[in-house]
User: Fold this.
Amino acid sequence: MEDITAAETQEMQQLLEPIFGAQVHTWRITLQTYEVFSRLVAKSGRCTGAMHLVPRPYNLSAPVRWAQRQVRQALRRHFLTREGNHYLVCMRTAGLAMRYDFWEAQNAPQ
Assistant:
């Protein structure tokens, strides 16, 4: 099994910081952390797909045009965004549900 380099540890901590906060800089990053993170990305992807369909703030001056534009924009967000582009709220929600998995991962043997 390969050891995780200091650069890889720092990169993973940078990925996890927006989700879990500065506490990730005290975590020990293991291979299991990478496995849990990949599950987190997969889990949050389902939420991100749904978030693409949420309408943006309402415009009172032209409700019909606003509704038509929202449908077009929702379709564009859904079909034209890259797979790796996840909403932070989705990542945080999935991360909260998986926080014990991350705790286990940092305590896993190397």
Summary: The chain has a mean pLDDT of 78. The helical segments are 6-20, 31-51, 63-80, 88-97, 99-106. Residues 48 and 96 are 16 Å apart (CA to CA). The chain is about 65% helix and 0% strand.
